[in-house]
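A further point concerns the way the authors explain their paired sequence and structure data. Each protein is reduced to its one-letter sequence and a matching series of backbone shape codes. An entry of this sort, consisting of the sequence and the corresponding backbone structure tokens, reads as follows:
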Amino acid sequence: MPDFSHEHRHHPGLVAGVDEAGRGPLAGPVVAAAVILRVDDCPDGLNDSKQLSARKRAELEAQVKARALCWGIGVASVAEIDEINILWATMLAMTRAVEALEHDCAHILVDGNRCPSWRWASTAVVEGDAKCLSIAAASILAKEERDRMMIAAAADHPHYGWESNKGYGSAHHLAALREHGPTPLHRRSFAPVAQLSFL
């Protein structure tokens, strides 16, 4: 289970955890979250969002937002993903999430193997959402925020099953793409969509 050892190791001051949701889907934005937790008031049960049930994620999201020192959300649009590619769009979303924090941080722990080019000292932590409480909290906020976006988008584009697949390339989604073609929320730089965009 994640703990505070990475946060304490890197800096005695305020340490933020950052994670993203939505690098792999064929549709929708990429969303990042940044969280600075209170060491003395941390919700129990924080973990990699992928290891939690939808109900538990929703409960923990509310607790993190209520009890963290501060949190921020950053989004990179489909247009930005197609223009600068998903890697750099993810870095942009992470930067926007940190910029949205109400407090400046002394250090940032980023899930993955690389950090954005930004003004803050930072450390990439592979599988950080399973190791660092701050990153685990960020992973929950990012996933919940993006899931809500895709459920809302599903009402406008009902053929693709986004309320359940959240834009990932499920069999249902791919079949709907072939039948109905891409929407404005589809990432045309992604091969399954690009192959259909020019038919």
Observations:
- DSSP finds eight helices and five strands in the chain.
- Residues 157 and 183 are 8 Å apart (CA to CA).
- The first helix runs from residue 5 to 10.
